[in-house]
Amino acid sequence: MDVNGITFSYDGNVDRLHNVQTTIQHGKITTIIGPNGCGKSTLLNVMSSNGKPRKGEVILDGKAIARYRPVELARRLAVVHQQNEAPDDLTVERLIRFGRMPHKTMFSSNKQEDEEAVEWAIACTNLEQRRFRTLDQLSGGERQRVWIAMALAQRTPILFLDEPTTYLDMFYQLEIMELIQRLNQAYGLTIVMVLHDINQALRYSDVIIAMKEGRILASGHPQEVLTSELIEEVYDVQVLIRRDPEAGLYIVPMQAVLRPL
Amino acid sequence: MANINSTPAAVQVSNVDREDTHRVYHRQERRRLWSFIAVLVLLTGVMLYSAMTGSLHVGVTQLLQGLWTGTDAQVNVVRDLRLPRIIIAVMAGAGLAVAGVLFQAVMKNPLADSGVIGISSGAALVSLIAVTVFPALYFWMPVFSFFGGALACLMVYGFSWRSGLHPVRLILIGVAVNAIFSGLGQSFNYRGSYAVTSLNQVTTSTLSMKKWVDVDVMLWYGGIGLILALLVASWCNYLALQEKTARNLGLNVTLVRVLISVVAVILASTATAIAGVIVFIGLLIPHIGRQLVGSDHRWLIPFSALAGGLLLLLADTLGRTVLAPQEIPASIIMAIIGGPFLIFLIRRSDRLHGR
C-alpha cells in the first residue's frame, strides 16, 4: 500500500496532513505514533477511505482506493475504529456476522464460507463463551475483542486498528497486543495501527511511523527510529532509553520540555 | 499444580455460563414471538369490533356471512362505508410507524417522526394544492404529496447537516420546517371561500367518508412502501453502527441513507395524502417495538407495521364511538396520547445519559 503525497483537510481551510508520503509493507506490523492532534488517526482514516484527500492518493494493489467500490475495498481492508457504537441488545455473534457483509451479493451468499469466517474470528478472539451475550453484558476488553472479531470476519489481508488499547487496563491491553501479534505471525495479516503507548509500539511493531503536526518525521525499524532525540522532537518529552536483559529495549519518560508559546 | 487443578472447574463454570446466556437469548426470542402473536390477535379483534360497532350494529356471524354472500343489506352498508375506513386506518398507521422507524435509523435519532419533523405537513401542503388545481388526478395524489414530503425532508437534512447530523439541531430544524408547512397549509384554507373547508381533511385528519377508491390508492402506494421497507431492513441495521464502521464494512452509506429516506417519505406522504397529518405514531410505536422485539430492523419493521396499524385503528374507533354520534378525529386522539408520551421519552433519555 502506497501513500502518495496526501494533503488533507476537514474543513477546506486548515490542512491536517501535509504531503504525507509512505509505504506500508506487506505482512508487517506498522505503528503510527505521535502526540494528540498530530494527524495519526486522520492518516488512518484517509488510508481507509473515510476522508477524501485534497491532494495525493492512496494506492492499494495498483489502484487508488478512491476508485474502489466500497465492498471491494471492504474485502481487502478492515478497520477497527477507536470509538464504536452498536445497539445494546445486539448479540456478539450477530455483530461479528456483520463482518460478512462485503461478501454478500444481492441474491446469494456462500453460507459455508460465512460460517467458517465467523467461527474463525470467534476462535481467534477467544469469544466462544460470549457468543450469545449482548454487548451491554461485556467488559471493555471483551467489547474491543468483538469489534476486532467483526473486522476479522471480513477476512481481509489488511487490518487497521485505531488506538486499540486506549481505555483498557493493563491485562486487556496485553491481551489485545498479543492477539494482534498472533494474527500477524500466524495468518500473515498486514497490520497498521495507531498507538499512544510508546513501549507497546517499540515491542510489537516491525515499522514505526512518527508523526508531528501532520507530517511524518521518521519511519523505519523501531530500534533505529525511536531515539531519545526523535522522541523529544515528537512529544516534547525527555526520555531515557534502557535495555533490560529480559524485557529488551524500553523507554522511560522523564521530563516534559516546556517551550515558550 | 494449582493451575491444572483449577482448569476443569473453570470449564464447568463457563459451560454453565453459556447455558445461562443461551437462556437469556431464548427468552428474548420468546418475547419477540409473543409480541407478534399479541399484536396480530389484537389487530384482528379491533378490526372486527370496529366493523361491528357504530350507528349501525351488526353481529360477528352476520358480518362474516354478509361479507361472504353479499346479500345482507346492513352488511353491505358496513362494507361500503366502514371497511374502507378500517383498511385505511390500518395501512396509514402501519405506514407512519414504519416511516418513523426508517427516519430514526437514517437520522440516528429516536425522536425523528414524520409528523414532528415536518415531512407530513410538507406532504399535506403539496397535496392540498394539487387537490385544488388538479382534482381529477386523484389516484396520483400520493405522488404529489411525495414531492412535498421529499422537499420537507431535504430541508431538514440540508439545514441541520453540518459535518454530521446533530440530534438536537435536527429536531429543532424539523420543528421549524413543520411550522412553515403547516402554517402555509392553514393559510391556504383561509382563502375566504367556504367551499375549501372540505379540503380540511388533508390538514386535520378525519378518516370518515373513505371509499374503496381511497383503499386502492392506499393499498398500492402503501403496500409498495411497506415491501420496500422490508427490503432495506438490514441496511438499517448497519446504520446503527458508526458511519465509519458501516463504510468500512462496504456499505455505501450516503446512497443507503438516500434510499431509506425515499422509502420513508413514500410511506409518510401516502398516509398523509389519504388520512391527513397524524403525529406521534412514528414516535410511539418504534419505541415500544424496540422494547418488545429489540432493535433488529428485520423484526422491528414488520412489528411496527402491525402495531402502528393497530394503534391508529384503535384511535379512530375510539374517536367515533366515545361521543357517538359526534366524532373526534383520530389525529386529535393521537396528539392527546402522543404529547405526554414525548415528554416521557425525553425525560427518560435525560436520565439515561445522565444530563
UniProtKB/TrEMBL annotation, chain A:
It is a peripheral membrane protein. The keyword Isomerase does not apply. It comes from the Bacteria. Gene3D superfamilies: P-loop containing nucleotide triphosphate hydrolases (3.40.50.300). Pfam families: ABC_tran. Residues 1-238 form the ABC transporter domain. Keywords: ATP-binding, Cell membrane, Ion transport, Iron, Iron transport, Membrane, Nucleotide-binding, Transport. GO terms for molecular function: ATP binding. It is found in: Cell membrane. Its main location: membrane. PANTHER family: FERRICHROME TRANSPORT ATP-BINDING PROTEIN FHUC, IRON(3+)-HYDROXAMATE IMPORT ATP-BINDING PROTEIN FHUC. This is Iron complex transport system ATP-binding protein.
UniProtKB/TrEMBL annotation, chain B:
Its main location: membrane. It is a multi-pass membrane protein. Keywords: Cell membrane, Iron, Membrane, Transmembrane, Transmembrane helix, Transport. The chain crosses the membrane at residues 33-52, 86-103, 115-133, 139-159, 218-240, 260-285, 297-315, 327-346. It is found in: Cell membrane. Belongs to the binding-protein-dependent transport system permease family. FecCD subfamily. Part of the binding-protein-dependent transport system for heme-iron. Responsible for the translocation of the substrate across the membrane. This is Probable heme-iron transport system permease protein IsdF.
